[in-house]
Give the backbone structure.
Amino acid sequence: MGLRTAFDVHPVAGQTTDEMVRHWAAAFREFAPTLKQTGWYEAYLKSGAPTRVQQMRLTLRRVGIESVEHAANLSDAYMEARDIALSLFPDALALLDHLRAKYPMGLITNGPADIQRQEIETLGLEPYFQHIFIEGEVGEGKPLASVFKRAEKAVGCEPHELVFIGNSYDHDIAPAIAAGWHTVWIRRESDVPPSADLEKEPKPKEKPVGGSDPDAIVDNLAVISSWL
């Protein structure tokens, strides 16, 4: 929604909004995996702005446009619209209220420090978690094993006493299983990132062949309370 709004507000001549969203997704798939190799990662950890503008520059470049100003305008519009549209799933707050009365909880999230803190504030999540680990603040993110070790130490629990609830198999479920945690994989039809090639990935990513099975797979958070 944020991407579409950005390209609606700052259109690109000769291109539709749908076309520009597809160009953005293609540019993201090329740019994001290279952050650590191309020197962008340190800036990315502190603030989402530099890489967000560069992402828009690469998107415009795909249609033959070189304009830092246009890229910056798109970046600002995207961030503003994204924050306005940010909301929890309807079943989230009930589960969080139930869990925090019974268990110590932690939040592990990847992304720039400023953006993740803004999201947490926008969604009102901070009161629910005793421990919050943001990639941009600790200097590393999922799926690194050290991220899970840090969380274990913070809560003072053994791996088999912990449960990871997440929607990404590669970044949440697989590394948590490897760390010895229990896992609940959330799979919703809407869990298709903007970067996905919709012609090839119309549904949430499947578990890779040979990948370990989570303890549970759910499409609604409400069932997690009874599962626990």
